[in-house]
Specification:
257 residues, alpha+beta, eight-stranded antiparallel β-barrel, two-stranded antiparallel sheet, 2 helices, 11 strands, elongated
Length: 257
């Protein structure tokens, strides 16, 4: 289990980071508005004529790439199971932008995407006599190992409510509704029964996974870069049939197109 002091420090860091991004974005907005305000009508007219054949650069966030790290909630219930502090993940989406009306700063986004999460820990997933998925710590006989992780992938449909200011500042919130396409574990290290030698185990028979995961998503930034956060409302496993864990993720969001 992640120490409480570390979790508090981590959350405080992310809070300060997000606030910094928002302040920078607002500063850009104010700077852009000030420059617009001091332009004379004549200069505006000349600028319009000179750019009549040019197309403006639009940041519509059609392609969204999120590089994130996850904190896995619920692991505190499983004594001896300790996750790593950093669990990298990725989310990629293609979203179609639907403005409320022509040139409106408010729009809706809908598309398709894929998310991949990882959980590095000393936990071992198994199955009990009641066909329920279990989570227990690594056997004491195994002192060191190279890798032990849970990998989770889903395909989803993102639905977002979006706002964009003309200066480039943007903010959005929504949900992802998907389907689990992969859930497996990978272990590389000493034999878990004898503690000697080396073995590589990939287990794709992880049962009782949630088939339709749902996440809430928040994203903000300026033009093509920002920060994102997501929380899985549903658990990774079916309620009552597996560990009650799910990822809370934060990261960097890049929208090149």
């Amino acid at each position: 289990m992640i120490p409480l002091s570390f979790r508090i420090s981590y959350l405080q860091f992310m809070k300060k980071f997000v606030i910094s991004i928002l302040l920078i974005s607002i500063s850009f907005c104010l700077f852009a508005q000030e420059n617009t305000a001091i332009e004379s009508p004549k200069s505006k007219k000349q600028k319009k004529i000179s750019n009549v054949s040019e197309k403006p650069v639009l940041f519509k966030d059609r392609v969204v790439l999120d590089f994130m790290t996850s904190i896995w909630t619920g692991l505190g219930k499983y004594e001896g199971v300790k996750p790593k502090a950093i669990n990298f993940g990725f989310n990629g989406e293609i979203i179609f932008d639907l403005p409320v009306k022509r040139k409106s700063p408010i729009s809706f986004g809908v598309g398709v995407g894929v998310s991949a999460y990882s959980l590095y820990s000393n936990g071992v997933f198994g199955i009990d006599n009641d066909a329920k998925t279990t989570l227990t710590p690594m056997p004491d006989i195994v002192s060191k190992y190279r890798k032990n992780k849970l990998s989770y992938t889903n395909l989803h449909i993102p639905i977002e409510f979006r706002y964009r200011h003309k200066c480039g500042f943007k903010i959005s919130a929504g949900v992802r509704v998907g389907v689990t396409v992969d859930l497996h574990t990978k272990y590389f290290g000493p034999d878990r029964e004898t503690g000697t030698g080396k073995e590589l185990i990939k287990d794709y028979d992880i049962r009782n996974r949630t088939k339709i995961p749902v996440e809430v998503v928040f994203r903000t930034g300026w033009k093509f870069i920002g920060v994102s956060a997501s929380y899985m409302i549903t658990k990774l496993f079916e309620s009552g049939n597996g560990p009650a864990i799910c990822p809370v993720s934060v990261g960097i969001s890049i929208c090149p197109y």
